[in-house]
Amino acid sequence: MNSTEKDLFDELAQLNASLPKLEHRHSLKVPEGYFNQLEERLFQRLKEEGIQPLMPEKRRGAIRRLLWPVGIAAALILAIIWWIRSNQSPTASKVDKAELTANDIEMYLQENPHLVEPREIAINLPPDSWTDQTFEHQGFETTWEIFLRDLSPEELNNLNL
């Protein structure tokens, strides 16, 4: 008992106040084994009232029994995957990009034209980079800009780009 409580009790004693002495104990008690059977009694009462539980009792118990083994198995699988990935060298299966030259890339694209759409290449080119390039068409040196400008709408539609 601290000094404040003692002062209060002394003051009450001087005033001749007749309060019952308080005992330090829990006044509420639960019958022995009450919580051990609570779930069973609850489901029994639901059955009596005609309310169907969300999960049958047998299935609910089976799921509980499987939680620990499934959790442990998942943790082991994740640990194995992490261990395998941490032991792999980062460049073991990747091509060193510094070894690729522009000629290598161009040759690869020429050999495998079905892998890349012209639109994808055009997006990565600097603006107006293709308009100044010259090539020979029908015996004359021309640029893409002049070549495309001179085509009719029908010829433009027939281009296979």
Could you list the spans in which at least 5 consecutive residues all have pLDDT below 50?
A: none
Report the structural category. Answer: mainly alpha
What's the tally of helices? 7
- Biggest pleated sheet: 2 strands, antiparallel
Task: Give a brief outline of the structure.
The protein has 161 residues and is mainly α. It has helices spanning 3-14, 38-48, 57-87, 102-111, 118-124, 144-149, 153-158; strands at 134-137, 140-143.
What does this structure look like?
With 161 residues, this protein is mainly alpha-helical. Helices cover 52% and strands 5% of the residues. The protein contains seven helices and two strands, in the order αααααββαα. A hairpin with a 2-residue loop joins β1 and β2. The N and C termini lie far apart (94 Å).
Keywords:
two-stranded antiparallel ribbon, 2 strands, 52% helix, elongated, 5% strand, 161 residues, single chain, mainly alpha, 7 helices
Describe the secondary structure blueprint for this structure.
Blueprint: H1 3-14, H2 38-48, H3 57-87, H4 102-111, H5 118-124, E1 134-137, E2 140-143, H6 144-149, H7 153-158
Antiparallel strand pairs: 1-2
